[in-house]
Specification:
The complex is a heterodimer of chains A (372) and B (112). Chain A is an alpha/beta fold. In chain A, 34% of the residues lie in helices and 13% in strands. The chains are: A alpha/beta (372), B alpha+beta (112). The structure holds iron/sulfur cluster.
Chain lengths: 372, 112
């Protein structure tokens, strides 16, 4: 195989720690702990290697990146390496001092998530009382500071009827861009699929709303959408192709082709043992689904294979337990009907309780034993 | 955190209908929108316009136009300077500059 072109983007998961516990979190179900996290100096080295490799944009993410005390130093290091810096945050912990520090570190862009427009519902989804109000204040402060702001809203059964209101809030907060992202079922979201999955009519209405809103906000705010896989006809071109455009570094330095790749049994290399370029070019995980040799039918002979790259490997793994299968979100997959049925069953399950990441299910605590 | 799993990057393509060029006036002083950066990439030996979740390669004329969008030069001045570098007809340069600027304003990558 010819050498792949250099990557354009890198997702830097600075930590898996987070004060929120959103039930659709894309972090792996087994979270990495603080003790194993890369240090400031290690991130500095990774950014320098990334820039040299050809990465242009770095997305500082988590978990909650602000949970790291050195987030300002890390941002400065990424900027000094010549990278465009994007902070993906819940905004909890974005106080005025932090914000000023990040500005001084020349942060380029901030993306803040909101959970809903109704504060009660938003806080319940985030698993954190008062989260919504703090997010609103922080988002305003970001826009007031003159920083470019994106509002990200993950859409699922509990909030899908309020897509328009979410876009309106984003605009009112001063965002230049809003992302309406239908939940993607990996990690915690897969666990909570029954409680999250919207019905088909809900999804259709949301898609129509986004199309209308795009017209209405033309030239004033960019509206991007992440499509709802389970009800799709063709799959998303996941990551722009495996090992083609971007890479993902976990808190402890493992380098993945996408943030869910560890659900597939592959050999991942770490920045602690290898240079980033070596990992990009030669690590088994990145080689696994590069190009088209790995494809099965119907992808192998499909004219769309250069457009969507056969869809998402992690979804094929999650649903079919075969990471090389055609993404079942594709209507040409022999398993597409099963996937649709999964969606319909989940959407009508009536399950309303979430399983929150990092928290025990509500088990009554044993009474403290009295030592006499 | 949430990461969208679509391809993170799109190439911004030009091709805005002619009619909307009218929004760009000769006296406007265009500048890159917040969060947008024009940068040379050593690895690819090419200029890129970097923006939230998107990037585009800024080839020859596009780079020469964008590097002059500093909030000080007017559109007329930018056209004038380009006419010094490129041999094309001034009217053609004027139309091309306005088309590019109108397109980028529509995408919120540029402010007038
Ligand atoms: S068969 Fe494969 S390549 Fe063709 S549209 Fe479906 S996922 Fe894409």
């Amino acid at each position: 195989m010819t050498a792949p072109p250099p990557p354009l983007g890198m997702l830097a998961e600075l930590t898996h720690r987070c004060p929120l516990a959103c039930p659709y979190c894309s972090n792996p179900v087994a979270l990495e702990n603080r003790a194993g996290e890369l240090g400031t100096g290690e991130w500095r080295r990774v950014f320098a290697q990334a820039a040299e490799l050809g990465v242009l944009q770095v997305h500082l993410s988590g978990g909650e990146p602000l949970a790291r005390r050195d987030v300002v130093e890390i941002t400065a290091a990424a900027h000094q390496a010549g990278l465009y810096t994007n902070l993906i945050t819940s905004a909890i912990g974005l106080d005025p001092e932090r914000l000023a520090g990040l500005r001084a570190a020349r942060l380029d862009h901030v993306q803040i998530s909101i959970q809903d427009t109704d504060p009660g519902s938003a806080d319940r989804i985030a698993g954190y009382r008062g989260a919504h109000e703090r997010k609103m204040a922080a988002a305003r402060a970001v826009a007031d500071a003159g920083l470019a702001l994106t509002i990200n809203a993950v859409v699922h059964r509990a909030n899908i009827e309020r897509v328009e209101a979410m876009v309106e809030i984003a605009f009112a907060l001063g965002a230049g861009r809003v992302e309406i992202a239908h939940a993607q079922y990996y990690g915690w979201a897969l666990r909570n699929r029954d409680a999250l999955m919207p019905t088909r009519p809900q999804v259709d209405r949301a898609l129509q709303a986004v199309a209308r809103l795009r017209q209405a906000y033309q030239g004033r705010m960019v509206i991007d959408a992440v499509v709802p896989d389970y009800y799709a006809r063709f799959p998303k071109p996941c990551m722009g192709g495996w090992g083609r455009r971007s890479l993902n570094v976990t808190p402890s330095g493992r380098v993945l082709p996408c943030h869910a790749a560890e659900t597939i049994p592959l050999e991942f290399w770490s920045v602690r043992n290898h240079a980033l370029e070596e990992i990009w070019l030669h690590s088994p995980a990145f080689q696994a689904f590069r190009g088209e040799d790995w494809m099965q039918e119907p992808c192998r002979s499909c004219p769309r294979r250069g457009i969507d790259f056969g869809g998402c490997r992690c979804q094929a793994m999650a649903i079919l337990h075969d990471p090389a299968a055609t993404d079942p979100a594709c209507s040409l997959s022999p398993h597409h009907a099963e996937m649709l049925e999964l969606a319909e069953l989940a959407s009508e399950s009536g399950v309303a309780e979430y399983e929150y990441r990092g928290r025990m299910k509500a088990v009554p605590r044993p009474a403290p034993s009295v030592v006499s | 955190m949430l990461m969208s799993r679509r391809g993170s990057f799109r190439l911004v393509r030009s091709g805005r209908p002619m009619a909307e060029q009218g929004i760009v006036k000769g006296g406007h002083r265009p500048k890159l929108a917040p969060g947008v950066r024009l940068q040379f990439d050593d690895r690819r030996q090419a200029w890129f316009l970097l923006a939230p979740e998107r990037l585009m390669e800024a080839d020859g004329p596009a780079k020469d136009i964008l590097s002059r969008c500093d909030g000080r030069r007017t559109v007329t001045e930018i056209v004038e300077e380009l006419a010094q570098i490129y041999t094309a007809d001034r009217a053609v340069i004027d139309a091309d500059v306005r088309e590019l600027l109108a397109d980028l304003v529509g995408k919120r990558l540029l402010q007038l």
